[in-house]
Amino acid sequence: MAADAELPRTAVPNGIVDPVASARAELKAALHAIEEKGNVPRRVEKAWIEGEAKARAFVRRNPVAAVAAVVGVAATVGGVVWVLARAISR
Fold first, then answer.
1. Where are the transmembrane segments (predicted)?
2. How far is CA 9 from CA 4, 6, 12, 49, in A?
């Protein structure tokens, strides 16, 4: 069973000779693959965590560029809000 622990949940183990056991393993792997693809909140959370780790690493490597990026994003968002508010008020 140690070999099974190394396989991802979406993989079908090799060496299954019984056709029923093989079909069950394939179905189980397919259902896990569907669950991983369809579970959007889990995928978003994973992407968020990875993005946060990359941002923290970027801040540690280059804090001046990180501050400049934050200022640039804030200025861009402020400009967009200002343009929208001005367009709505007219």
1. 64-85
2. 9, 9, 8, 21
d(CA 30, CA 9): 9
Give the whole-angstrom CA distance, residue 48 versus residue 54: 10
Tell me the pTM.
0.53
Q: Report the C-alpha gap between 80 and 54 in whole angstroms.
A: 26
**Residue 16 to residue 7: CA distance in whole angstroms:** 14
